[in-house]
Amino acid sequence: MKPFRLSRRTLLRGVGAAVALPTLEAMLDSRGTALAAGKPLPRRFATFFFGDGVILGKWNPTSTGANWQLSPALAPLVNVKSYVNVVSGHQVKTPDRRGHHTGQSAILSGYPFIELYAPNANYASKFGGPSIDQVAAQHIGQGTAFRSLELGVSKRIVTGEGPTLQYISHKGPDQPLQPEYNPAALFTRLFSGFSPAPEPQVDPRAALRASVLDAVREDAKRLQVRLGSTDRARLDAHLTSISELRQQILALPPQYTQACTQPQPVTQTNRDSGGKEPLEQVSKTMSDLLVLAWACDLTRVASYMFSGGVCATVFHMLGQSRGNHDLTHDPDPSAQDQVHASVVWVVKQFAYLLERLKATPEAGGNLLDNSCLLLTSDVAEGYAHSTTDYPILVAGRAGGYLKSPGVHVRSTSKENTSNVLLTCLKAVGTGVASVGGDSGYSDTECTAIKA
Amino acid sequence: MALVALLAPTGCQEQPAQGPSGGPTTAPSFQPAPVSPRILLGWQYRNAISELLGNEAAQAVQPPPDTALNGFDGIGASQLALSSSAIARYESSAWLAAQAALANTSARGALLGCTPRSTMDEECLRGFLSRFGARAWRRPLTDAELTSWTALGMSAAAAAGDFYSGVEVLIAGLLQSPHFLYMVEVGVPDPSQPGRLALTGHEMATRLAFFLAGTSPDETLLAAAARGELDTAEGVRTQARRLLALPTARTALAHFFDELLQLRELSTLSKDATTFPFFTPSLAASMREETQRLLEDIVWEREGDFRDAFDSGYTFVDKQLAALYGISGAPATGFARVTLPAEEGRGGLLGHASFLSLLAHTTTTSPTLRGRFIRERLLCEPIAAPPTNIPPLPAQNPGEPPRTMRQRLQQHVSNPSCAGCHDKMDPLGLGLENFDAVGRYRTNDNDAPIDPVSTFDRSGTFSGPRQLGGLLRADDRVLRCLVRNLFRMASGHVDEAGEQVSLNQLDEAFATSGYRMKELLVELVASDAFRYARSQEVQP
């Protein structure tokens, strides 16, 4: 089918009577202002998550403070060590009602998870509140084409126990955000909507798509008033999602610069070969795309699920043949050695992302100078389902908010992990005063990692 | 040891407060559950596109992934909200479907139902919208909807100088509307019972069609809805029987089994290539096929007693499966029915390679996973939370290390914090230990002989899947669980206490029919629990 080639002017005249069109100029202005000189540089935030925890004896550095040394698990961070703060000795404070669920919800949101208890049906749970990437997106993600990005690498996730284990990004209890596992599809979503015109402009077809979305929005609003209160909230979320898509469609293409380079088309998919996941290739490509999306200011917030809670990821490149969760519960020392080896491997992928950010220039510094990345897991140690002495890294300088060079902070009083979440949210300029809820609530920062 | 003694008991020692095991489930009178719009599941969405616009359009769409709650995607679809990436998928899919449908210029006339006399033939465009819209939204459009959408289509046609641009906008728009994306269920006050809601005829048509036929209601069903024929249980039964005679009914029920038995996970299942070099995606696909064929044979071909699924002495194999099972009788291509050798104890669904492979690790079996599945999915007895902050296990006793899975799992029994739940799960799986992580028969594990004799609650001892299946088919809990699982998928919610009186009637109807699945389906959609609802604001 021949693609639409309507000029925007024609379209405005033709459709304007039926449906209110967006003020394209307003968006232009907003976007222009955001990029204009004199404004503070944008700050970015990401969570980087992997399932089944660590071996603490090989994770925690032995010394604290500024002179900490890389532990065996953290060795891959050698080239970015000065950008990394290690937080240890903290504890998830929400009630520990179910292994993995407790940690995954609390460490990513500060809220206790919600049990969907049905005595005769399969168990399921959902997050008790928004994950912190979505809190960040609410405050610093509104002006960009994509409010946030959700990326996934390993597909061996648990789908049978509800959104808590299945996803790391949640706008709220009833709105989990599915990650994109396919780098090629992510590339298309990020870059293909823009017209290839020499002059950056909105694709004329985009205005038509937006006008259809406007008509759909009117349908949804008329339906909404007929529904019960719970479903009115669901339709509210639907309407917000329409608005976000509309903003993406009408966004201008990025201005290519030294940092925001015009990308080559990405063809890497996430298809298994001989039962093996292409973990390394996908992880690298996802990291490359995230760096590019940040460099081009297409988004400022991301969640990066390398693997999920209770994941059955097989680290085949390490010669392993068993699922990771299965290994964590095997008390045999060789099984625990394999768990550690997989943790090192994941940290290496995280190090790659940090190194790429560090190598991307921005205003005399680099992207890592203006970012904050939180690395963590669904449990402290997989074998025990423990939630004390939680593994947490806070990487990046966040525009000078975080300590640099990084330190190892070890709590001797089992401080609340949510203190770290709040520090991250403040570091990227959200202005929030607290994070989480109930026993996971915190209005206290982890001051030791603040500059 | 003192530490171990202090551990809190787990929930597994408690009996469920209520449930298919026969507890006090029955409320004194029927109370329907709240009504809620349900997002079409991915496969329902694709089928609906196919029904409306043809196969090429259906191939073009990429609906977002579904998210299960309490064991079923349909329950997630009733509760969760759509993210912007999901909305983006629906948006791009709608345009792709519209373009694919209009790409074949010779088929446009049939789709349109009129011949445009000009670029701006409003009558033709509005006529198309009225017909297509009623099918897409499963109800007639209101005049206001017809007017505003026609105006949008006309302006797009004018802007492009092409009538079909207007058609494309209408198709793409209607497919993005919540009236298409959700099974919109609001209900109307039930005249016979103040305070409760009855589904409207069109809402009922939609529920029936997506549950029984897996797709949008056809013209006949919509016409029956418009005539009020779906307002009575008997009218619903008539249409249900008609739908169950359609080929799509088999596919729809196959989706239930795919979900209940986790068969869809076979497409991404991987096994250790060193241990099982012959395990391929093709073999995994055959495993799914075997299970679906047995169920199809019982439900549709023989219209037999559904309980046969648990202990049937026959199955369907192709060459790959026959080699895996070490039996003969497979044709050169395709599948054939074979009788299973009695001496190995294989038989029924629990002897299928699909179940045995899915509920196992990459190299070894997992009696725990197999037992948990039987508890949760077949008996509706969920396992309580695994303990948190598990203490380190005592060092292994010196001497001979454990060899068989049964010996290794002794750890669970010897640790009180584990035993409560594992006592419910492990014995079920230990009786299936003659079948390895891909479902091959074996008599040794790790060079040690396997003892497959185990126990199932108070039902007695068993050895092997066929004997366990025999115990399950005679177990009232299994049949009640099946009825409730089917209802959960059909209705998009976990059955509530107030609905049990209606579901108990289904249990009886199922038994009276000699456990015929088709009769259960007919009675399910005709039941009060399926046809009535309450407003979200009304507490039970």
Task: Produce a short descriptive summary.
The complex is a heterodimer of chains A (451) and B (540). Chain A is an alpha/beta fold and 451 residues long.
Overall morphology of chain A = globular
Name the structural class of chain B: mainly alpha
**Main sheet of chain A: which strands, in order across?**
5-6-1-9-10-2-11
Tell me the number of helical segments of chain A per DSSP (H or I, 4 or more residues long): 13
Number of strands of chain A: 11
Helix share bin of chain B:
40-55%
Average residue pLDDT of chain A: 89
- Give the count of helical stretches of chain B: 27
Strand content of chain A: 5-15%
Biggest interface, and residues per chain?
A: A-B, 87 and 93 residues
| Total E-strand runs of chain B | 11
Oligomeric assembly: heterodimer
Helical content of chain A stands at 25-40%
Summarize the main sheet of chain B.
Answer: 3 strands, antiparallel
Radius of gyration of chain B, rounded?
26 Å
**Main beta sheet of chain A, described?**
7 strands, mixed
If you had to describe this structure to a student in words, what would you say it looks like?
The complex is a heterodimer of chains A (451) and B (540). With 451 residues, chain A is of the alpha/beta class. Helix content of chain A is 35%, strand content 10%. Chain A has a 7-stranded mixed beta sheet with strand order 5-6-1-9-10-2-11, with helices on both faces. Chain A starts with 7 loop residues before the first helix and ends in a 24-residue tail after the last helix. With 540 residues, chain B is mainly alpha-helical. Helices cover 52% and strands 6% of the residues of chain B. Chain B has helices at residues 2-6, 42-53, 55-60, 73-79, 84-103, 108-112, 122-136, 143-160, 163-176, 178-181, 201-213, 219-226, 233-244, 247-260, 281-301, 308-311, 319-325, 353-358, 367-378, 405-408, 410-414, 416-430, 465-473, 476-491, 500-512, 517-526, 528-531; strands at 38-39, 182-183, 188-189, 197-198, 314-317, 336-339, 444-445, 448-449, 453-456, 460-463, 532-533. In chain B, strand 9 (453-456) and strand 10 (460-463) form a beta hairpin. In chain B, helix 7 (122-136) crosses helix 8 and helix 11 (201-213) runs antiparallel to helix 12 (219-226). Chain B starts with a helix and ends in a 7-residue tail after the last strand.
